[in-house]
Amino acid sequence: MANYNVKSLKAEEFINHEEILDTLAYADANKENWELIDSLIKKAAARKGLTHREASVLLACEDKERIETIYALARQIKKDFYGNRIVMFAPLYLSNYCVNGCTYCPYHMQNKCISRKKLSQEEIVKEVTALQDMGHKRLALEAGEHPTMNPIEYILESIKTIYSIQHKNGAIRRVNVNIAATTVENYRKLKEAGIGTYILFQETYHKESYEQLHPTGPKSDYAYHTEAMDRAMEGGIDDVGLGVLFGLELYRYELAGLLMHAEHLEAVHGVGPHTISVPRLKRADDINPDDFDNGISDEIFEKLIALIRISVPYTGMIISTRESAAVRARALELGVSQISGASRTSVGGYCEPEPEDETTEQFDVSDKRTLDEVVRWLMELGFIPSFCTACYREGRTGDRFMSLLKAGEIQNCCHPNALMTLKEFLMDYASPETKALGEKVIEAELQNIPKEKVRQIAKDNLEKIEMGIRDFRF
Ligand code: SAM
Asked: What distance in angstroms lies between residue 105's CA and the mean position of ligand 1's atoms?
């Protein structure tokens, strides 16, 4: 543990291997220490969050009754912090050219079967128009790492193109970016281009496994990858999104590493991660998940989601269409606050379906429903699908967002904004069935806006949206 230092800027010190091993041993030693476990549940119930050590003890605990208590608490914390709103987004794959050798990813350089493709700016316009026609307002850009095919200039130009597209009532109002670790200078450029969250999955926090899984290419440098979020924040990016790819390493190791990373960002930059994603390894071209030993069951997956929820209550959680509708429903209840809908993981997939004999996909999608179907399903489950991007556009990012959230004030912005953006969706894109249900939901949910004055403004704005005027926000 000698080298563990949460404030250090060196990867091996803030994600210290010895500290994780000690944490796991401590968790094993205390997994039936009921007094400690009950005190940790009590601490989490007081909305104080949990450290990596504390969460690891609860992860090791196998007592059914206590696990149910943890789930109930996760549900309650989810409700208290995020209400019943679920933020919607879609990934946009720009290019699958890649110089890395990641053994679990079909983009890896040695894969000669996958057809390589990079969208031109004209193709991006077509893809984004198709996404706008579904009703999307928020995108996550995805690209392989390739210094000549996908340099930062290409990413910046693509962001500019995306923000410039005005099609009918549509507009992409927030572009999040999931590209390889880069320099402070490039992060500064991304910030200037107006990105929302910078997302980078750690894949695994276990250095030795990381090096085996990333044998070649720039991504093979564990320290450079792990320290990326510090560079992003140095470059002025307020909102960063963490994640591990579950299935690569032991999940207990990953939960400890993930929470240590969150603790590090909070300690050094005064603000923790904006989001945590929970991807699981999937079948893909040239990739068989069974070749990796650490796949996790749905039960463990749910437990991880619940524990992340109660450990970092202020961090949004994201789940993608890698998961089925059934798994997503359970994840939404236990902690997830953002989901993708109608995703295509192939380059150019929103305009042209993939030909049978050709594949550019990154992984198999489990949830293949349309956005309209996902929106209706969410409302049937009691959620409000939200297309809101207001916080980012009003400058409520980083610690400004967190302090509003911590003061409980976000209810007065998020709830009306969610209803107004849902109304826009219903007016512009929804099927008659979804629209009919949505109108009822909005009517009922208006009553849950705490301040009367805000409720009245929301009502007025909803009427204006009905008349064809768009983009109101608090
Ligand atoms: N090139 C960037 C990078 O290296 O971080 C962008 C990432 S890639 C387009 C997005 C994410 O997909 C990766 O970070 C990885 O976690 C995930 N991914 C790769 N192969 C996968 C697979 N077979 N199943 C599920 N997710 C996968």
From this structure: 6
Per the domain annotation, does 168 fall within a domain? yes
| Ligand 1 centre distance from Cα of residue 144 (Å) | 9
CATH number for 131: 3.20.20.70
Residue 142 near ligand 1, beta carbon < 6 Å: yes
Residues 40 and 159 in one domain: no
- What secondary structure letter does DSSP report for 284? B
Looking at residue 361, its pLDDT comes to 81
Across the chain, mean pLDDT equals 95
pLDDT tens, 148-185? 999 999 999 999 999 999 999 989 999 999 999 999 99
Read out DSSP for 172-201? --EEEEE-----HHHHHHHHHTT-S-EE--
Closest ligand 1 atom to Cα of 225: 5
Q: Identify the domain containing residue 58 by its residue range.
A: 11-79
The Cα–Cα gap between 222 and 202 comes to 9
Do 218 and 145 share a structural domain?
A: yes
Report if residue 416 sits inside a domain: yes
Q: Which residue has the higher pLDDT, 258 or 356?
A: 258
Atom 19 of ligand 1, nearest CA residue: 105
Q: Is 287 close to ligand 1, i.e. is its CB under 6 Å away?
A: yes
DSSP state of 33: -
Residue that the structure tokens 């919607």 belong to: 88
* pLDDT tens digits for range 292-304: 989 999 999 999 9
